[in-house]
Amino acid sequence: GGTCCAMAVDAFKLSIPEKWLADGNTKPFFTQLNELKGIPVINVHLWFNKKLKPYDGLVFSRSKLLSVYADMSECVKEYADAEKSMLELVFAP
User: Fold this and answer.
1) 52-57: long-range contacts at Cβ-Cβ below 8 A with a sequence spacing of 24 or more?
2) Which terminus of the chain faces fewer neighbouring Cβ atoms within 10 Å, N or C?
3) b or e along 14-33 (b: 16 or more beta carbons within 10 Å of the residue's beta carbon)?
4) What is the spatial distance between Cα 75 and Cα 56, in angstroms, rounded to a whole number?
5) DSSP labels, 11-50
6) How far apart (Å, rounded) are the C-alpha atoms in residues 80 and 38?
7) Contact between 72 and 86 (Cβ < 8 Å)
8) Each residue's pLDDT tens digit in the chain (93 positions)?
């Protein structure tokens, strides 16, 4: 088994308990996190008063700037709307 963490690198580093960093068994693992560097990320939400062409999924871009986008009204139940779309774009230079 394993663990998946969906947090910004800097926030994750701050959330690690001190005892894990001091413990001889876990310290080598968590010390490796110092190799990870956070990057600035910009999320843009575009709200439309009509429905875009439905696509239920994330779209990953090959662009070096725009990494992923999705119609959240199709992908996330909290944003579900049959009449309108909310497009989220994630820019990570």
Assistant:
1) 52/85, 52/87
2) N
3) eeeeeeeeeeeeeeeeeeee
4) 5
5) HHHHHS-HHHHHSTTTHHHHHGGGG------EEEEEEESS
6) 31
7) yes
8) 667 767 788 888 888 889 988 898 888 888 888 888 888 888 889 999 999 887 777 777 777 777 788 888 988 899 899 999 998 888 877
